[in-house]
Structure formats: C-alpha cells, structure tokens
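[Meeting: bench + compute handoff]

Bench side (C.D.) handed over the final construct sequence. Compute side (W.E.) agreed to return the predicted structure before the next meeting so the bench team could plan truncations. Sequence as handed over:
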Amino acid sequence: MPLTDAGSAGFRAWPPETGRRGVLASTVLLAVVTAACAAEQPQPPAPPAPTQGVTVVEKLVLPFDAYKTTPKQRAVLGNAHNRLLVACMREHGITVTPPAEDPKTLAAIDPGNSRRYGVTDIDAARTHGYHLARPPAPNTTDAWAAKLPEQTRQRLYGTAADRGCVDQATLDLDKGAPKADWPWLAQQDSVTLEQAAKDPSVVTAVKRWRECMSKAGHSYASPEAAIGDKRWNLDQPQIGEAEKRTATDDTTCKWSSGLVLAWYTADAERQDKVITDNPARFSALRANLKQRLKRASAVLSADEGR
C-alpha cells in the first residue's frame, strides 16, 4: 500500500516539518468502518448529512493551530538559528553559508489542515488526484551539509562528548525561554485525530460517504481504502485519469456526506478539551514560542546592524 507515515499522501497530523507523525487516523477509521460493514447486512440508508458548518478547506482551522508556528515564524526562527550556527563555526575557524529560510517557500509547501482528513480540496483532487498538490518540503539543510567536507560536518554536528554547532545554536536560540513540551503537543495532535475517527458522527458520515461513492461507481469501504488503492503509485510523479476521477469523487463525497464536517467537529471538540484540561502546558508553549521569536528577532537585528 502506498500510504505510509512518510508518504506523499494520506491523513496527516501536524507537524510534518518535524517528522513526528502519530498513529494514522485512517487506519482506525478503516477498522471501525470494516467492523460496521460486517455487522450491518443489509444496511439501511444513512441519515442525511448536516447542512451547516465548515464547507471549504480553508476554514479547517483547529484550536491547536493557535499554538503552532506560522511559515513566517518558522523562517524567522530558522534564519536566526543559521546566524548563530555561522557564528559558532566561525569561532572554530570554519566559514559556512547555510541556505536561508524563505517564508514564501515555507508557506507554499505548508498543507495546513487540507490533508488532515485525507484529500479534501476538490480543485487539487481534479489536478493531482491523491498526490500532494504542493511539493514536498525541501530538505535544504541536510542537502547542504551533505556537500560539506567531513571535518566541517563533524564540527557542525559534533559528537556525544562534544556538542556541535547545530546543537549550540539551538541552545543559544532557546536561551531565556521557559521550558515547553512541543513533542507532547504533536502527540496530542495525532491523538485527537485518531479519537475523532471513532466518533459515532464520523462513522455515520462514512456510511453516507460510502453510499455516495457507490453511486459514482466505486466500492471502497472507507476513504483510506480509496487512497490506498494499489492502482495509484503515490511514490511516483505520474498521475492517471482514473486516480484523478476517483480522488475528485472521493473529495466531493467527503463534503456532500458531511464527513469532513463531522470529523473536523469531533477533532476540534477534543482539542478544545485538551486545552481546557492542560492550561499550564499551553501557557508554557505560548510563552516558549514568544521568547524564542523575541530572541530570534534580536539575533537577526544585531546581525543586520553590523
């Protein structure tokens, strides 16, 4: 199956740029739906879809989003880290020029929540099928570092006994910032997605989605099964017309069945509860980011003033 944690398509949980991905909610959704199929023969028609709520992919804004970095903020943090890295390497007599972070490029490759519930952008599905509409995030830092002389890379990354300049720059950038558990937020982001997939409203919406897809000529048990069809090779750039048609029908049925709305609503409710239940954690996250951005801006301003 082409759908993998690191693949080019699927049900994505934040943050892709860190490489931290939780349990794919699609797997849970498939298991729930498969069990339901076995228990419901024959199946009565599903209740009608809700008629009010989020109706466009751009409106899929979740409570956790307020605590995550924007592309512009990631560029500020990344460029400040680069400046500190350059200064550290210079202290060891080595001159390096890491690639700059461009906020426009980061924004262009940021899918936001458009792939959180599978393919939900109809225009993108028409053109790209189940393939990502945006290019994958460039691995510019690693690609740049791979071309450096071995001695330079050793100083850059260091050893277990001698911290390298990458880590030194990170520590410098974090100076004065209160501790915050960002991995915990990433984990919770995956957990709410997974839990929401089991919500009765989502299971019912999947039934409506399946009926819609059947009328369009498809016999998939779930959206995960559609995107995981072996006919699509999501690791290759070629996109066939059958994939485009299926993805378009899939996306159209997701909206008309109320699946996107149901999953998004269940997801948002769970995120709201996590925030309410963990005020200290979220306060620390916000304070940590605020201080790191302040420090990053100071680093960049000082460098520009030279």
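W.E. noted at the follow-up: The longest helix spans residues 279-304. C.D. will use this when planning the next construct.
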